[in-house]
Specification:
With 309 residues, the protein is an alpha/beta fold. Among the domains are: 87-166, D-Maltodextrin-Binding Protein, domain 2; 187-309, 2-Layer Sandwich (Alpha-Beta Plaits), CATH 3.30.70.260. Helix content is 30%, strand content 29%. It has helices at 12-17, 34-43, 62-69, 107-120, 132-141, 153-158, 209-218, 252-264, 290-304, and strands spanning 2-6, 27-31, 48-55, 59-60, 75-83, 87-90, 102-105, 125-128, 148-151, 162-166, 175-182, 194-201, 224-231, 239-246, 269-275. Strands 1, 2, 3, 4, 5 and 11 form a six-stranded mixed sheet that branches. It has a five-stranded mixed sheet with strand order 8-7-9-6-10. The protein is elongated. The N and C termini lie far apart (54 Å). The structure holds prephenic acid (PRE). It comes from Paeniglutamicibacter sulfureus. Residues 198-275 form the ACT domain. It is an enzyme of class 4 (lyase). Residues 2-183 form the Prephenate dehydratase domain.
C-alpha cells in the first residue's frame, strides 16, 4: 500500500494516518494540499489518501467536502479521530508574546485558537499555511518569514522548535475527524457499528426539496450524524448536501433509504460504508430491523406472484 496525506510530516493528518494498521511501515507520501492528495489517488500514484473532513469546533473542512463530492469517483474506506491540542512555537530570538508580529498556521487551526490569539497576541498578523506543520517548519527555513506558528506539540518537539505556550486551543478536547479515501472498490464488511456517506445534489430549488430527502431517512429510522450544505460552484443558490448516516449499505433500512434517495435525487453519489470510529448512539426500532424489511419484501413478492399475466 502507498498512502498519501496532507503533509508535510508532523501534521495532525499524518497522526490520523498512523492509526491505520500497517501504515507506519508502509510508504507515506506527503501532499501539499487536499486536492493534491486526492489527485494522487485518482491517478494511481497512491492507493489511499488520509484527509481531514470535520472538526468539532470549526465544522466541515470545505476543501475535502467539495473535492470528494465532485470529479472522478472516490470511496471512503475508514475514518479516524484525533484529539487536537496546539502549542505556540516561535523563532529562537523570540522570548515573549509582545515580540510576535505575525503567526502562521492552517486556517482550521487558527479558527480553533482565535480567542486565545485575540487575547494574547492581538496585534499579530495571521499568515495562512497549507498545514500546521508547514507553518511550523517555515520557522526553521524562512528567516524572513513569520515570528510564530500554531502547531501540534509533536511536530514542535520533533523539529526542536522553541515552544512559548502550550494548550492554546479555545476548546479543550476538540476532535478532528479524518477519512481514508481510495478509488472505488470493495465496500468494507459491516462491523455492526458503521457509517455511510452520501452526496445529494438538489435537483431543483423548490419548497420541500430538502424535506423529500430527509423523509427517505426518517421513514426507515436511519439516523443522520452529519448534514452539511455546500455550494456546487455553478451559481448562487445551487447546493448539494453532504450527509453521514448511522448504518451500512448491507443493512436493509440503509439500502432501502438509498433506493428512495435515488428516486428523488438521481444524481446522488454514494461515498461508501465504513466502520465508525466511535460507538453510535442511535437505536433501531423493530419495524426498521433487517428482519422486518425481509419479511415485508417477501410478503410483497408473494402478492406479486398472484398477478395476472
Ligand atoms: O494542519 C494540519 O496539521 C492538519 O492536519 C489539518 C487540520 C484541518 O484541516 O483541520 C487538521 C487538524 C486540525 O483541526 C487543524 C488542521
Amino acid at each position: 500500500m502507498i498512502y498519501t496525506y496532507l503533509g508535510p510530516a508532523g501534521t495532525f493528518t499524518e497522526a490520523a494516518l498512523l492509526q491505520v494498521p500497517g501504515a507506519r511501515d508502509a510508504e507515506r507520501i506527503p501532499s501539499a494540499n487536499v486536492n493534491a492528495a486526492l489527485d494522487k489517488v485518482r491517478s494511481g500514484e497512491a492507493d489511499a489518501a488520509m484527509v481531514p473532513i470535520e472538526n468539532s469546533v470549526e465544522g466541515g473542512v470545505s476543501a475535502t467536502l467539495d473535492a470528494i463530492a465532485t470529479g472522478e469517483a472516490l470511496q471512503i474506506m475508514r475514518e479516524a479521530l484525533v484529539t487536537i491540542s496546539f502549542v505556540l512555537a516561535v523563532r529562537q530570538n523570540i522570548d515573549s508574546l509582545e515580540q510576535i508580529r505575525s503567526v502562521s498556521t492552517h486556517g482550521h487551526a487558527w479558527a480553533q485558537c482565535r480567542g486565545w490569539a485575540e487575547a494574547n497576541i492581538p496585534g499579530a498578523e495571521f499568515v495562512p499555511a497549507s498545514s500546521t506543520a508547514a507553518g511550523a517548519l517555515a520557522l526553521l527555513d524562512d528567516e524572513t518569514g513569520h515570528d510564530a506558528a500554531i502547531c501540534s506539540p509533536l511536530v514542535a518537539r520533533e523539529r526542536g522548535l522553541k515552544i512559548l505556550r502550550e494548550g492554546i486551543e479555545d476548546y479543550q478536547g476538540a476532535v478532528t475527524r479524518f477519512v481514508l479515501v481510495a478509488r472505488p472498490g470493495p465496500i468494507p464488511a459491516p462491523t455492526g457499528v458503521d457509517k455511510s456517506t452520501v452526496i445529494l445534489p438538489l435537483a431543483e430549488d423548490r419548497p420541500g426539496a430538502l424535506m423529500d430527502i430527509l423523509e427517505q431517512f426518517v421513514v426507515r429510522g436511519v439516523n443522520l450524524s452529519r448534514i452539511e450544505s455546500r455550494p456546487t460552484g455553478e451559481g448562487m443558490g445551487k447546493y448539494f448536501f453532504s450527509v453521514d448516516v448511522d448504518g451500512h449499505l448491507a443493512q436493509e433500512r440503509v439500502a432501502d433509504a438509498l433506493a428512495g434517495l435515488h428516486r428523488v435525487c438521481p444524481d446522488l453519489r454514494f461515498l461508501g460504508s465504513y466502520p465508525a470510529a466511535e460507538g453510535l448512539s442511535s437505536s433501531v426500532d423493530a419495524h426498521n430491523s433487517d428482519n422486518a424489511f425481509s419479511k415485508a419484501h417477501a410478503w410483497v413478492h408473494g402478492l406479486k406472484t398472484r398477478l395476472a399475466t
